[in-house]
Each structure stands twice: as C-alpha cells, then as structure tokens.
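The record is kept unedited without comment:

——
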Amino acid sequence: MTDWRKSSYSGDGDNCVEVGHGVGIRDSKAPATHITLSSEAWAAFLEVVRSR
C-alpha cells in the first residue's frame, strides 16, 4: 500500500486517519504502522459510518 490519502475534512493538520489503497488505515502521526483490512471489513465499516 503506497497511495495514502486523508479526508478533505482534515485540512492541513496531522491529527487524522489516512486510508490506503489495498485497503488499510493508519494514523498520520505514526505513518510507519498501519492496520490492514480486508475489502469486506472495509465495506462493513463504511456501511456503519454511512448509516449514522
């Protein structure tokens, strides 16, 4: 995973969560580590977030 991006809502700050194509997430303050997620887990997460 090399293409990390953060939400446009994060602005220029470094206190955010970034999403990587592949699929994974990481804390912008600790970019050397990340959590790898399956496509199914990511889809389930997005479904919950969108439903709220």
